[in-house]
C-alpha cells in the first residue's frame, strides 16, 4: 500500500472525517477539502495529527460539532467538550403574594421617605412587573389608593402598639421640637423593657406639626395629648427632653408633685375658684410625668463653657485668630466651587464644615485641618487669600483637638440608639474624666483646659 493510500485509510478512521474530502498527501502533510464551508476550500494538516482540522471545526462549525452523536474513536485526539449546561432557576423562583408585595412597597416608600407619587412612576412600575406574584397579576395602585393603604397600615400599627402598652407597667418617653422648612414638629418616642424577656423595646409615638409659638403651655398640651392617645398617663415614669427653657418650664409648671397626691388623698372639702379653673390661662390644666434632661445634650453644653473659658483668659487671642482662619477656609471652600476643587486636588479630601447644633462636627472639622501638614495648609491659605497659620496657632489647634477627643467619644456613646441605656452613663463619665486628666502632661498651650472640663462635668 502506497503512502498516500495508507494516509487516506488512517484519515478515514477519524470520527469527524466525513466533514472533509481527502485530496492528497505531500510528504508529512495531507490536504483536504472542507465540506461545511461554501466553495472548495482546502485545508492542510499533519499526517499523524488532526488538531488543525479539529481546531477549524471548533472555531467555525461549533454547532455542527456539538450535535455529533458520541462514539468511540481510535484517534489520539478528542473533541472539545461541550459547554456546561446553564442552570435554570425559573422553576425555583419564590413568588410573593399581593399582600406581601404591598407591604414591601409601603416599607420602601416610608423608610426612604419618598413621595407618594413614586408608586405612579413608570420606571418603578417596570421593576414591580418583574416580581413574580402568586395567582393573578398584582394590581398596582395609584397615589390615592396607596395613601389609603398607608393609613390602614398606620391604624393597624397603632392598635398593635396600644395592645403592647396595655401589658406594660412602666414606660419612658422622649420629646423634642425642631423646625424644618419654616415648619415646627414635635417628635416623641417610647422605651420599655419587656417583663417576660427583659428585652428593650422602643417605638415612635408621634411626629406631628406644632403651630404657633413653642410656649411652655403649648408644649405641655401636646405632650399630654400624645400620652393620652396611647393611654400612658399613669404608666410614664419619666420624660426625657433637651435643656431648652420652654421644656423645663412646662414640666416645672405642669408636673404632678407629691403634694398634689397628698391633696387627692385628703378627704377634706376644698373650695376653688370656678372661673380660674375654667380659664385657659390656668397653669394647672395639664399633668405631666417626672422630667429628666438628656445626658448627651447636657454634656454637649460643655463646649460652650470651654469656649467661654477660652474667650476669658490669656488664650483668647490665639483661640480667636486660629478659629477665625479656620472659619475663613470653611467659608471659602463652601461658597466657591473653584476653591472646593482646589482643596480636593491638593488635599485629596474635603474640608468638614461644622454644624451649629452638633458640637462634634466642630471638633471633626478642626481635626481635618490639623491632619494636614502646616506647609501644605499654608499653601492653600495663600491661594485663598487668607492669612497663614503660625506655628503657635497650629500647635494650639492640635492640642485643642487632643484635649476634647475623649469628649467626642463620650458623646458618640451617649447618642447611640441601640446600645445606650441608663447604666452606661456613669461609667462613661468616669472614663471621660480620667482620660481627660491623663492628657495634662502632653499639653503646652492648653495645660489648664482638662481641669476646666472636669470641673464643668462635676458641676
Automatic annotation (TrEMBL):
<feature type="compositionally biased region" description="Low complexity">
    <location>
        <begin position="64"/>
        <end position="73"/>
    </location>
</feature>
<protein>
    <recommendedName>
        <fullName>HAT C-terminal dimerisation domain-containing protein</fullName>
    </recommendedName>
</protein>
<feature type="compositionally biased region" description="Polar residues">
    <location>
        <begin position="74"/>
        <end position="84"/>
    </location>
</feature>
<feature type="region of interest" description="Disordered">
    <location>
        <begin position="64"/>
        <end position="84"/>
    </location>
</feature>
<dbReference type="InterPro" id="IPR012337">
    <property type="entry name" value="RNaseH-like_sf"/>
</dbReference>
Amino acid at each position: 500500500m502506497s503512502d498516500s493510500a495508507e494516509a487516506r485509510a488512517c484519515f478515514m478512521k477519524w470520527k469527524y472525517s466525513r466533514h472533509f474530502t481527502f485530496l492528497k498527501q505531500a510528504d508529512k502533510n495531507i490536504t483536504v477539502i472542507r465540506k461545511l464551508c461554501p466553495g472548495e476550500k482546502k485545508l492542510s494538516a499533519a499526517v499523524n495529527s488532526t488538531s488543525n482540522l479539529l481546531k477549524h471545526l471548533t472555531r467555525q462549525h461549533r454547532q455542527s460539532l456539538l450535535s455529533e452523536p458520541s462514539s468511540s474513536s481510535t484517534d489520539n485526539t478528542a473533541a472539545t467538550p461541550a459547554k456546561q449546561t446553564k442552570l435554570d432557576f425559573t422553576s425555583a423562583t419564590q413568588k410573593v403574594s399581593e399582600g406581601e408585595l404591598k407591604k414591601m412597597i409601603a416599607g420602601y416608600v416610608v423608610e426612604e421617605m419618598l413621595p407618594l407619587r413614586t408608586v405612579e412612576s413608570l420606571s418603578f412600575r417596570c421593576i414591580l412587573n418583574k416580581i413574580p406574584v402568586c395567582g393573578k397579576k398584582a394590581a398596582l395602585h395609584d397615589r390615592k389608593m396607596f395613601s389609603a393603604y398607608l393609613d390602614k397600615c398606620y391604624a393597624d400599627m397603632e392598635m398593635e402598639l396600644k395592645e403592647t402598652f396595655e401589658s406594660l407597667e412602666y414606660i419612658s418617653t422622649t420629646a423634642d421640637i425642631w423646625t424644618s422648612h419654616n415648619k415646627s414638629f414635635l417628635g416623641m418616642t417610647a422605651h420599655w423593657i419587656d417583663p417576660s424577656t427583659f428585652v428593650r423595646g422602643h417605638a415612635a409615638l408621634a411626629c406631628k406639626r406644632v403651630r404657633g409659638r413653642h410656649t411652655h403651655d403649648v408644649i405641655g398640651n401636646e405632650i399630654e395629648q400624645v400620652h393620652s392617645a396611647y393611654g400612658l398617663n399613669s404608666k410614664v415614669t419619666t420624660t426625657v427632653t433637651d435643656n431648652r427653657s420652654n421644656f423645663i418650664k412646662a414640666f416645672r409648671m405642669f408636673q404632678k408633685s407629691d403634694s398634689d397626691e397628698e391633696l387627692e388623698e385628703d378627704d377634706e372639702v376644698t373650695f376653688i375658684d370656678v372661673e380660674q379653673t375654667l380659664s385657659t390661662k390656668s397653669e394647672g390644666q395639664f399633668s405631666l410625668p417626672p422630667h429628666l434632661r438628656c445626658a448627651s445634650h447636657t454634656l454637649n453644653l460643655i463646649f460652650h463653657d470651654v469656649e467661654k473659658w477660652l474667650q476669658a483668659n490669656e488664650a483668647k487671642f490665639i483661640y480667636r485668630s486660629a478659629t477665625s482662619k479656620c472659619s475663613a477656609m470653611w467659608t471659602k471652600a463652601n461658597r466657591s466651587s473653584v476653591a472646593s476643587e482646589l482643596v480636593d486636588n491638593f488635599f485629596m479630601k474635603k474640608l468638614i464644615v461644622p454644624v451649629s447644633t452638633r458640637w462634634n462636627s466642630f471638633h471633626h472639622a478642626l481635626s481635618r485641618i490639623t491632619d494636614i501638614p502646616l506647609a501644605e495648609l499654608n499653601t492653600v491659605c495663600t491661594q485663598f487669600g487668607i492669612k497663614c497659620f503660625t506655628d503657635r496657632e497650629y500647635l494650639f489647634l492640635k492640642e485643642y483637638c487632643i484635649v476634647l477627643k475623649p469628649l467626642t467619644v463620650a458623646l458618640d456613646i451617649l447618642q447611640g440608639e441601640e446600645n445606650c441605656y441608663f447604666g452606661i452613663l456613669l461609667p462613661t463619665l468616669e472614663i471621660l474624666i480620667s482620660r481627660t486628666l491623663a492628657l495634662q502632661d502632653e499639653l503646652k498651650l492648653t495645660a489648664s483646659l482638662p481641669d476646666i472640663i472636669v470641673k464643668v462635668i462635676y458641676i
